[in-house]
Design a protein that fits this description.
It is a single chain. The protein is of the alpha/beta class and 440 residues long. The protein is built from twelve helices and 13 strands. It folds into two domains: 19-150 and 195-289, Alpha/Beta hydrolase fold, catalytic domain (Rossmann fold), CATH 3.40.50; 311-435, no CATH class. It has a nine-stranded mixed sheet, with helices on both faces. It has a two-stranded antiparallel sheet with strand order 1-2. Helix 7 (221-234) links the parallel strand 9 and strand 10. Helix 4 runs antiparallel to helix 5 (171-186) and helix 10 packs antiparallel against helix 11. The longest helix has 27 residues, at 384-410. The N and C termini lie far apart (65 Å). GO terms for molecular function: carboxylic ester hydrolase activity; serine-type endopeptidase activity. Residues 93-259 form the Peptidase S9 prolyl oligopeptidase catalytic domain. Keywords: Hydrolase, Membrane, Transmembrane, Transmembrane helix. One of its GO terms (biological process) is proteolysis.
Length: 440
């Protein structure tokens, strides 16, 4: 068989092993495989667009093989790693990758170039409609677990959903789902955070098949169904089918509650994709939409950061407080006097301050790296690490008050050392309130 090495704009055939293809987009050569149907005649085609994170072609091979059995040539490819990471991504570039794959599939023998579309899962649910909006060469768009809201709003909703499912309430939920997301976005560490899918969906004129799991806990599915239907109706694109599968999670795998993933896909999902794509040749679709599934809570648009919430301000206050607390034990290494004024309360202040600031950083990294999705044991609505950090934060306040009162009453020396520890407490309190350590 032939393969193709293509740029976004111009495909060029080249020899390759049977079924394998390669194509170029934005200076990067991507590799994939076409899973072709058996039998003669021109077949429709699907390019499968990845969800977030690292993916290769084998992640979607099961679906591709099923689509091929339904008579659809399916291209699966290895996702780019250059220009794509946790802190770097561009949906427009990913859409161009998909369009390069579309051109590759359209150029293959046995594929009807007029019937090649895109399929996108999760993050691909933002990318696939963008590819369709950018090129009339895309014949249709299929989305699975697509969002009608921006990535930051979706991620905030998902974090809150998982934490509350784990029994977490109170300030930790607000910290992870709001303060954390807003800070990452403000720091530029959450790429495409504010991407709005609605203006793109307004430009899609091709038939759309939108699929969701009733028990999706990563994407707010009820909002997505409503937004897709309202947007397509408003712009006059009435060739849509919006389907909700019961007892199915985000990727349309079977589930008991949306938080687990059982073997096998939701019954009817893969068959529907096959019959829907094949049925497009019979003429325009009639609009069809299932009722939006119930959500436990609605997603909320995140407010922009105030000046005092800026990442550099927060990092600066945290670092100064940490240094101020550390100054007390460090300066002890150079003291000449054996007796230390206010030793007990000041030591408590320095110790609890160091534990609270350093411990918060460690736990924050753990939560941001995925720990929020598996919060672990919970006591009084708090995870055990968060409960410990809150108790330590209260210890900072109490020891700071005791140190300040004792220092004022005694009027003793050691002013610089004790003063630095107290300065750390003064910085710590508003910082700890902002991050929820001193909030119920």
């Amino acid at each position: 068989m032939l393969a193709a090495v293509v740029a976004v704009s111009s495909p060029a055939p080249a020899a390759a092993p049977a079924g394998d293809v390669s194509f170029t987009s934005h200076g990067v050569t991507l590799h994939g495989t076409v899973v072709a149907p058996e039998g003669g005649g021109l077949a429709p085609g699907i390019v499968m667009v990845h969800g977030s994170g690292e993916h290769d072609r084998d992640d979607y091979r099961a679906e591709a093989e099923t689509f091929a059995k339904a008579g659809i040539a399916t291209l699966i490819y290895d996702k780019r790693t250059e220009g794509y990471s946790l802190f770097e991504r561009d949906y427009s570039v990913l859409a161009d990758d998909a369009l390069a794959a579309v051109q590759t599939l359209r150029s293959r023998p046995g594929v009807d170039p007029a019937r090649v579309g895109v399929w996108g899962l999760s993050e691909g649910g933002w990318v696939a409609p963008l590819a369709a909006a950018k090129s009339e060469d895309v014949a249709f768009a299929v989305t699975v677990g697509a969002n009608g809201v921006s990535p930051d709003r979706q991620q905030s909703w998902a974090f809150e959903t998982y934490l509350r499912h784990g029994g977490v309430t109170g300030s930790l939920v607000d910290m992870v789902a709001s303060t954390n997301i807003r800070t990452l976005a403000g720091a530029g560490a959450f790429p495409e955070a504010g991407y709005d899918p609605v203006p793109v969906l307004e430009k899609v004129r091709q038939p759309v098949l939108g699929l969701w799991g009733e028990l999706d806990r990563l994407t707010p599915p009820g909002e997505a169904v409503r937004i897709f239907r309202e947007t397509l109706e408003r712009t006059g694109n009435r060739q849509y089918t919006l389907k909700v599968f019961p007892q199915a999670q985000h990727g349309l795998r079977r589930t008991t509650n949306g938080f687990d993933k059982l073997d096998g896909f939701a019954p009817g999902y893969l068959d529907l994709v096959g019959s829907w794509v094949n049925g497009l040749k019979d003429g325009p679709l009639r609009p069809s939409a299932d009722p939006p599934p119930r959500q436990e809570s609605e997603s909320v648009a995140l407010a922009p950061l105030a000046w005092y919430e800026s990442p550099w301000s927060q990092i600066g206050v945290w670092a100064l407080a940490l240094l101020a607390f550390a100054a007390y034990p460090v300066t002890a290494l150079f003291r000449r006097r054996k007796s230390v004024p206010l030793a007990r309360p000041a030591r408590w202040l320095a110790s609890t301050g160091l534990l609270a600031t350093a411990g918060f950083l460690a736990y924050y990294v753990t939560l941001s790296a995925g720990g929020a999705m598996t919060p672990g044991p919970v006591l009084f609505g708090r995870t055990l690490p968060w409960l410990a950090l809150q108790l330590i934060a209260v210890g900072v306040v109490v020891s700071g008050v005791v140190t300040a009162v004792s220092w004022w009453r005694r009027d003793e020396g050691g002013g610089l050392r004790v003063g630095l520890a107290l300065a750390g407490a003064v910085l710590f309190v508003p910082w700890a309130v902002h991050w929820g350590l001193l909030v119920p």
